[in-house]
Known about the structure:
Bound molecules: adenosine-5'-triphosphate, pantoate, beta-alanine
CATH topology of the largest domain: Rossmann fold
Strand content: 15-25%
Order of helices and strands: EHEHEHEHHHEHEHHHEEE
Number of helices: 10
Distance between the termini: 53 Å
Largest sheet: 6 strands, parallel
Amino acid sequence: MKVIHTRGELAREVEAVPGAVAVVMTMGALHEGHRRLMREARQRSAFVVVTIFVNPLQFGPNEDFEKYPRTLEADVEACRAEGVAVVFAPGRDEVYPTGAPSITMNAGPLGEILEGASRAGHFAGMLTVVQKLLMLTRADVAFFGEKDFQQLALIRRMVHDLELGVEIVGVPTVREVDGLAMSSRNRYLSPEERRAALALSRALREGAVHTEASAVLAAARKILADEPSVRVDYLALTGADLGDAPEAGPARLLVAARVGATRLIDNVPLTLERAV
Length: 276
Ligand SMILES: Nc1ncnc2c1ncn2[C@@H]1O[C@H](COP(=O)(O)OP(=O)(O)OP(=O)(O)O)[C@@H](O)[C@H]1O
Ligand SMILES: CC(C)(CO)[C@@H](O)C(=O)[O-]
Ligand code: BAL
């Protein structure tokens, strides 16, 4: 496995690949969720590139860019254990050689709701770096987690609308045994916050037992209300494509909340028999 830091080295690595290039993009601090993505990628291709880059463009001024965990040595070992071919861990100037770009992606209406309503500019910054990394890695197929469901939906939309010719594969959320969705930000949680944070996955699980929209929301709300240290940002029931009118059939229940200073998100699929 090679660990490289420049776009020149990356270009040399990917140009000689005979088969498909599969890419897993991450911000590092790798956990079992990331490793599941790598394993899925390895099933599809002998040549997997993992990118590790904490993208400043997708963080708001009051967010955790500075304190985001950076654990490159351990991350490299995790990638090695998963049979990854190349780890691309560029510095900021390598990704943005001309400084902050004046032209960025527009995430459209789907970028304004849910996460987009709380994190102005987040999805434009995310899509901009994803597009860059797809180009730099010359990816044929890219793997993203359903834990960041709106992100996955937006990447699919970008690839479709701009005809980028890359296959996007979504991978179900990997959870701790007690249900908490794995996330690099979980390491910010104190033991008490870690316990309170279980309300998110519990609320989704209890909600998904029901098949009628108002019962889904009522059950989830009750669980969240019983945990006062969890400050809910949104609890939303949408269509499976995040369209905001859930019809009968496949749907998605999503939650975002602050636990202490940490903002967490989670979501589950469910099936509605009736919208109301
Ligand atoms: N629990 C998980 N299960 C499946 N995929 C995941 C999980 N957590 C993250 N991923 C996916 O890994 C990729 C990289 O995500 P990222 O590095 O931001 O990790 P993260 O744990 O989501 O971090 P953060 O806590 O900052 O949101 C994304 O496609 C993301 O959806
Ligand atoms: C896709 C991504 C690597 C882009 O910075 C990031 O948003 C993430 O880790 O989910
Ligand atoms: N895991 C999604 C990237 C972010 O929160 O910035």
